[in-house]
Predict the 3D structure of the following.
Amino acid sequence: MSDLHNKIVFITGASAGIGEACARKFAEHHARLILTARRRSRLEQLAQGLDTDCHIIELDIRDRWAVDEAVNGLPKDWKAVDILVNNAGLGRGLEKLHEGNVDGWEEMIDTNIKGLLYTSRAILPGMVARGSGHVINIGSIAGHEVYPGGNVYCSTKHAVDAITKGMRIDLVDTPIRVSTVDPGLVETEFSEVRFYGDKERAKKVYEGYQPLSADDVAEAVVWIADRPPHVQIAEIIIFPTAQASAMVVDKNN
Ligand code: NDP
Ligand code: 8X3
């Protein structure tokens, strides 16, 4: 039996893409899932199809008080979160900085950095008190490189990289593990959100090569979570085979 059996996994952004795929993969191991995102109906639909216990919370991680309330208000048998998957995040636009949309910057910074911090701050004290836990952040190749128009999104993912490293240092004298999975191009709703619903433009991002699927990333997340307690995978960078760096993608071959 997998070590993940009956583990409580708290996933942010479980209503789509990588977060949803993580929920499905953890469910295959019979982990118990706390599914969070803003779109409750999607979470309900997901939970209905999973053969494991699920607890749904409609949550906007940009709202600090709502995050605290969600975590503090967990029912007794859901409180002892074993694994936190900090996945919720988004990109907005690809404009040059001097032409950028400030509202989009706010959304990215508030979600990708502050939301991840609020969630971690709310859940980590319980892990520390219990002497067990694992935080798995979803970073990005954008946390290692900067590409044209990536200015603010890349800065948020560089921040995730720094926060991951900082957390690992802060928790080194505990049994808690901290990991990050940093993908390249994954075909999800990410580009549709980045381009404010422009499906045609979003589709083009994934044309001419085989991008990663959300499942490819979720498999890495679950593998990391399933290592023995003394093994801490610090970081995994995953590319599609046709990608060599943020900007080098072999299209139409
Ligand atoms: P999707 O757009 O498919 O999914 C994003 C998820 O984040 C949704 O479930 C959405 O749920 C949730 N979310 C967004 N904002 C909030 C918020 N304020 N509060 C709570 N949940 C929120 O994109 P991906 O699955 O691709 O993205 C997941 C993570 O992976 C992100 O952190 C992204 O930066 C990262 N990533 C993606 C890559 C890609 O190429 N796709 C590559 C590298 C990293 P809802 O709208 O219901 O709230
Ligand atoms: C999202 C994918 O290519 O914009 O992190 O960095 S990319």
